[in-house]
Amino acid sequence: MQAPQPIAVGDRIAAIDIIRGFALFGVLWMNLYEHRGLMMPNDALDHLPTARLDYWVGFLSEWLMRGKAQALFSLLFGFGFANIIDRLKARGASPAIFLRRTAILLVFGLIDVFLMWVGDILAAYAVMGFVLYLTRNWSTRMLILVGLPVAVLGTPVLELAMRLLMGGEAWWLRLWEEGAAIRADLAMRNDYTAFVAELWRSTWVEWWLTPAVLPYLAQIIGRFLLGSWIFRQGWLGNVSGHTRLFARTTRLALPIGLLMSGFVASVKWFEWLPVWVGATVDQVSMLVLACGYGAAIVMLHLHGRFTRLFIGLQAVGRMALTNYLMQSLFYVFGLYGFGLGLMSYLGATASLGLAIAFFAMQIGFSLWWLARYRFGPLEWLWRSLTYGEAQPLRKPAGTAAAMPAE
């Protein structure tokens, strides 16, 4: 039996890192855009000088990216899980190494949610990563038979059940509104200690101790299972051998996903459709458009278009953990009162502009770092803790700075 070893840099799949980089931009964009619900009351946006433009940019945000970046991220997590388990089994190593890796991710997530950003997803991903481990020996057929209905119907069914059991009133929505007002006030003060205390309170009172967390966790595990199923198909491990598949997926999923998502962004579900119907269409549109985005990126990558952009996205994707937590630091020191205090200007237009500007900085930093080091700083720490020894970090002198070939 061989000792467990991390995936070598040369064994990485370029397309996966590029898609992950794209998803990170979407996560940054949506986290800035959705600060209005988590960190500031909606009525504050009506008085911004960009309010009229914000209406249309907000529609664009809802249409093109809301939920899609997180769907991509979840699918990629499931893909990465299956990849790790497969490699560990091939080497004769215990798959339990994934549990240590997930426990370390949970620590990163707890640091994020309790010290920086109430909208952290790492902690929830880690929690459901432990659940995902129980499916490591499932058949390929079982992954899709369970994953697809849970990913699509888990949220609508659970939300419907909760409303029926509670007489149709989602009492936690009131908690979220009250919490957003509290956080908006604290975030603009120069009192980081009070802000952290609010993060601790809201994480439990508004989220983990309410029924609202159940549909979210169901959505995550369903998408994880679909990501594992995608890995089993071998498509992304040999993208050049599946060109027709990616071309067909792009032609179908991209327009259908855009049409469905545009419909969701345009319609007020509560006025004329049952809530669970709207929620189901919403979940399907997120998955379809996420797959369309991923397939389109693969096709553009195969045809050598946007090479410079894709090199930057690949660099960001290789340092996904570092860049995700860098974004949380940006919220703290760029948006809040103990930093630049930009949150009071954070309409939909400013959200998109800030996302583009900061992500461009992340591309530059990632390219600079990876020209000198094998892994991102937090990726190196994660690997070293997972495998119980310090991994080599600095590249040998004279090593080419180019990204690894597919």
Features:
406 residues
What would your notes on this structure say?
This protein is mainly alpha-helical. It has one domain. It has 17 helices and no strands. It has helices at residues 14-33, 35-38, 51-64, 68-90, 97-115, 122-133, 140-165, 171-187, 192-208, 213-233, 243-266, 269-272, 275-302, 307-318, 320-335, 348-370, 377-387. α3 packs across α16 and α8 runs antiparallel to α9. The two termini are 29 Å apart. The relative contact order is 0.16. Mean pLDDT is 86; it is low at 1-11 and 401-406. It holds the Pfam family DUF418. Keywords: Membrane, Transmembrane, Transmembrane helix.
Helix-strand string: HHHHHHHHHHHHHHHHH
Distance between the termini: 29 Å
Q: What oligomeric state is this?
A: single chain
Give the count of structural domains.
1
Compute the average pLDDT. 86
Largest pleated sheet = none
Tell me what portion of residues adopts beta-strand conformation.
Answer: under 5%
Coarse shape: globular
Structural class: mainly alpha
The strand count comes to 0
Helix content: over 70%
